[in-house]
Design a protein that fits this description.
Among the domains are: 4-85, Gyrase A, domain 2, CATH 3.30.1360.70; 395-416 and 434-564, Isoleucyl-tRNA Synthetase, Domain 1 (Orthogonal Bundle), CATH 1.10.730. α15 (383-398) crosses α16 (408-424). By secondary structure, the chain is an alpha/beta fold. The strands form four sheets. The chain has a four-stranded parallel β-sheet with strand order 5-4-9-10, sandwiched between helices. The chain contains 22 helices and 13 strands. The protein binds one RNA strand of 77 nucleotides through β7, β8, α14, α18 and α21.
Length: 572
RNA sequence: GCGCCCGUAGCUCAGCUGGAUAGAGCGUCGGACUCCGACUCCGAAGGCCAUGCGUUCGAAUCGCACCGGGCGUACCA
């Protein structure tokens, strides 16, 4: 597709001394109202340069560009030069692109040859997968897909919380109150109950905490008995997680969790010593960060065992060496902002200039109407329950619709799961939110089912005239887009044209909601177009043009949903 | 205390790295199916963009201050 903004900037640059096209392109903006044109060039800033009133400048530019064939019209309003593009040309340009690229429409090769790592989801072993884990899982998955679409090689890492003092606690608890049989039958539920009991008992008997720390230290030293138990807990837990990931359609390239780095930490400490940044304080080994207005990073506890931060540093070193990443992205809750600032700084102090390639992508907290999530206190909503309820509700609704019986289950899953995922990705990730059943199970308005419905509706139209559609794809019929250049069609096609830029923006900001918002726009424009104009008209030429618009809308929605990890069924 | 984040319509949120009268959805009220899928569409009501000062030709957007909320703040993750 042609970049019409760039083209406009280029033409303006010829008329304006002292400004190059790149500067002008940055100044060009989109008018608040489409009746004011497709692009606008504000002239306020030129006033000083040309020592003239901005309105005058705008007027003169508009007059000079009056005959320019690249534009349908150039109009002056106040201090703005407003550009109206040739609708049919712009639409045709996009249609050709969509017909040719299909599922690839919106993809680019910006990141060719570069590797991006995304660490996301990362649940704790032996704890249930709840609504709080959904954000990292779904945001991380989408960021992966976005970077993949931008041409990067992506590596999806599930940094399982499979290590740390908590496993000391778990092992102590299992030995005291656990049963092998229960763990085999209901692994997470049983392990969790031991864990909860541990905390209750430890309140009465604080020596349990010391015992747990000692047990973890033995695990870290590779003692056989502890290691066997730990391995077993990990396997059982992973089996349950996989079920949820399958439902969400999410895959990982690596499950190297914290434990994977347990033997890679001495090196980290050696490097720190070489650089002379490690010091002893209150029996622990720390890196002092007071020069950077941060509390110290504790690298090694007084009992010799390591912490989260040490493992993250070891993991980053390993990943740099293994993958030579261009970017190393962490999709982790904003609660850990300080943690990431600390260890990014430590890495820099260790002399690694790639510390700036490490990016923390934080997101806001999820809470319940009854308060903060707490697995231990039973204040929790399980993700599986949410997904199942949503699927169930979808099944009820689509039973009477146009879904063949054999496709019902799959469709209920696509739409039900899609609703939950879409909902999760519709707001800026940094915002906190309160989980509400009403909200996830509401399918009206700006929701996944709304967008999916729009897609299914477009598919339905296309299904009715397969010959025409085939002809368009094969190129044996070339649509005359002048026959579909109404306001409704044009606004829709403008949104389609914008899609590749939207993908780039979402990548730059690490913000899937940019895509979510945009495909809602596309769906809204399509629904308006659909209502305003009959697509399957008698006249073939007119019909082909409107079908081309329909194909473009459907494809954009489908590709956008794919980047969110949401399916786009043809019927629902 | 200190640090970071959030504060836009009754509710949930957009608002592009400063621009032309601040936009959606939900909810409320009122309309549109003998017509390509009504999980749809159209219309109405609803705002001193928390507050104050500043920078600027121009501020919801940038800076400072202040209020309210969240998170974090040495051996949990």
């Amino acid at each position: 597709m042609k970049d019409l903004k760039k083209l406009t900037a280029g033409i303006l640059a010829e008329k304006l001394e002292g400004l190059d096209a790149a500067d002008i392109e940055k100044m060009i903006e989109t008018p608040p109202d489409s009746t004011l044109g497709d692009y606008a060039f504000p002239c306020f800033r030129l006033a000083k340069m040309f020592r003239k009133a901005p309105q005058m400048i705008a007027q003169e530019i508009a007059e000079q560009l009056a005959g320019e064939t690249a534009f349908h019209e150039v109009r002056n309003v106040n201090a703005y030069v407003n550009f109206f593009m040739n609708r049919a040309e712009a639409e045709a340009d996009a249609v050709v692109d969509v017909l040719e690229k299909k599922d690839e429409f919106g993809r680019s090769d910006l990141g060719a040859g570069k590797t991006v790592i995304v660490e996301f989801s990362s649940p704790n072993i032996a704890k249930p997968f709840h609504i709080g884990h959904l954000r990292s899982t779904v945001i991380g998955n989408s960021i992966n897909k976005i970077y993949d679409a931008l041409g990067y090689d992506v590596v999806r890492i599930n940094h399982l919380g499979d290590y740390g003092t908590q496993f000391g606690k778990m092992i102590v608890a299992y030995r005291k109150w656990g049963s092998e049989e229960d763990v085999r039958r209901e692994p997470i539920k049983s392990l969790l109950s031991y864990y909860v009991r541990f905390h209750d008992e430890a309140e009465k008997d604080p020596s349990l905490e010391d015992e747990a720390r000692a047990t973890f230290a033995r695990l870290e030293q590779g003692e056989k008995e502890e290691t066997e138990l730990w391995k077993w807990f990990r396997e059982e837990s992973l089996r349950e997680f996989t079920y949820v990931y399958d439902l969400l359609g999410i895959e990982f390239d690596s499950y190297a969790g914290e434990s994977f780095y347990s033997d890679k930490m001495d090196r980290v400490i050696d490097i720190m010593n070489e650089k002379g940044i490690l010091q002893e304080s209150q029996g622990a080994q720390i890196v002092d960060l007071s020069d950077y207005n941060m509390p110290p990073a504790i690298i090694r506890k007084k009992d010799g065992s390591t912490l989260y931060i040490t493992r993250d540093i070891a993991a980053a070193l390993y990943r740099k060496e293994t993958y030579d990443f261009f970017k190393n992205i962490y999709v982790v809750a904003s609660q850990q902002n300080l943690h990431f600032s600390q260890w990014f700084k430590v890495i820099e102090l260790m002399g690694f200039d790639w510390s700036e390639q490490c990016v923390h992508v934080p997101f806001g907290m999820v809470s319940l109407e009854s308060g903060t999530l707490s697995t231990r206190k039973g204040q929790v909503v399980f993700l599986l329950d949410v997904l199942n309820k949503s699927i169930e509700r979808t099944r009820e609704i689509i039973k009477e619709k146009n879904v063949p019986a054999e496709a019902l289950e799959q469709t209920a899953k696509d739409v039900g799961v899609g609703a939950v995922v879409f909902n999760e990705l519709s707001n800026n990730r940094i915002k906190d939110y309160v989980f509400s059943w009403d909200k996830v199970l509401n399918f009206d308005g700006e929701t996944g089912p709304y967008v999916q419905y729009t897609h299914a509706r477009a598919s339905s139209v296309l299904r009715r005239t397969e010959e025409d559609v085939k002809a368009l794809y094969e190129g044996s019929a070339v649509p005359d887009m002048a026959l579909a250049s109404s306001d409704a069609a044009y606004e829709l096609m403008k949104a389609v044209r914008k899609f590749p830029k939207i993908v780039e923006e979402a990548g730059e900001k690490y913000e899937p909601s940019v895509i979510t918002r945009h495909i809602i726009d596309v769906a809204q424009y399509f629904n308006k177009f659909y209502h305003d104009e009959h697509i399957l008209v008698e006249d073939r030429e007119e019909r082909l043009a409107r079908l081309a618009v329909t194909i473009a809308a459907k494809q954009t929605i489908k590709n956008g949903l794919a980047l969110l990890g949401v399916a786009a069924p043809d019927r629902m």
